[in-house]
């Protein structure tokens, strides 16, 4: 029996688990380790922050979910990986040995990298931040809102698109959902009572997609009187301002930012990442230096942008790579990435974005329709009620065909 250890039970870790679980007790045993008791379904966080949705609907309980399906779950923080000894060290010193290791620890949101963030900044990137933001939004009675992503920095060991921001989809949700809430729910007047400014560290807002999504998002921003500021690298948030590296400032009563993404300390400390701590893999998701280590999701250097959809693609590849190694009759899917997300815009409004132009492809779709909202609702609920299990491949293929027709 081969001992498989999965570090991190987010999108990628859970997807790998569900892909290999049929082998549990036959050829493998599986241990999953996560610091949290519940996986956090991040795509539902904007609904907590701008609609007051309950946090419970974004959580998947891990111990029963995994153990009732044959795995061992350990809730603890991973402190160190010793790849030459095939073992990981947990907080408190417990040592866990493995034959094969999957590293799916995601990326750290480095709030501390922005001066003043702790005192004055807001975000939507985790459960604590989203709930804190809802408390602020509920009592917000007008003023200047500034939102955007900080610049992140990546290593250079693998060839991946050099994006300034890990993913600006959540910023799209922030600006449109907040606008909807303030205008439609609170009855505030745009420009007269509140104003939304948006910044991006890049030359182009939503740099990971092509012309069509730019056009659709741009039209909505113009219609909703939002002002875009390009090439702005956030440096500091103050009580009534936000400041950028180029020396400019904007007046600001509510700053909502995506902080820089960084690698978890455990990867930096263990020396298995690239210069920035993201894990270098080949396109079968195998570590470039360690044959028995696979990685998937936000932690990998190849995952650009950092998206759940990409974590799922890479998770399926990593799982197939292991199964093939164990002698199963499987084909490793190609590492063909695409941006696929449904941007919630408040009420019944949503835009589905599907684009592979970043990787040289021709697909570049932006579908604004109540159907997009229904698809998001269906997908989020499926994931929640099926304990983080993705919809079956045939349903994903049907969605893919539908977007190809658009
Ligand atoms: C607000 C928001 C909205 C988003 N919306 C979308 C969307 O609509 N569509 C989309 O495709 N993507 C979306 N994303 C991106 C998506 O959520 C991430 O890309 C995805 O979660 C990455 O999956 P992962 O498994 O790599 O990492 P994660 O989901 O972050 O999971 C990592 C896991 O590792 C655990 N962990 C980390 N360090 C340790 C440690 N040292 N010891 C033990 N455990 C540890 C964590 O507790 C966590 O459970 C959104 C992100 C945000 C922030």
Rounded mean pLDDT score: 96
Give unreliable regions as ranges. Answer: none
CATH architecture of the largest domain: 3-Layer(bba) Sandwich
Percent range of helical residues: 25-40%
Task: Characterise this structure.
- This protein has helices at residues 11-20, 45-51, 63-67, 117-120, 127-139, 169-185, 211-223, 265-270, 308-325, 370-385, 393-405, and strands spanning 2-7, 28-34, 38-40, 59-61, 72-75, 78-82, 87-90, 95-97, 100-103, 108-109, 121-122, 143-149, 194-199, 227-229, 234-237, 241-244, 249-251, 254-258, 261-262, 293-295, 339-344, 350-355, 364-368.
- The protein is α/β, with parallel strands linked by helices and 406 residues long.
- It has three domains: 2-107 and 263-336, FAD/NAD(P)-binding domain, CATH 3.50.50; 111-260, FAD/NAD(P)-binding domain (3-Layer(bba) Sandwich); 338-406, no CATH class.
- A five-stranded parallel beta sheet has the order 5-2-1-9-20. It has a five-stranded parallel beta sheet with strand order 11-18-12-13-14. Strands 6-7-8 form a three-stranded antiparallel beta sheet.
- Helix 2 (45-51) runs parallel beside helix 6 (169-185).
- The chain starts with a strand and ends with a helix.
- 46% of the residues are buried.
- The model has no long low-confidence stretch (mean pLDDT 96).
- Flavin-adenine dinucleotide (FAD) binds next to helix 1, strand 2, helix 2, helix 6 and helix 9.
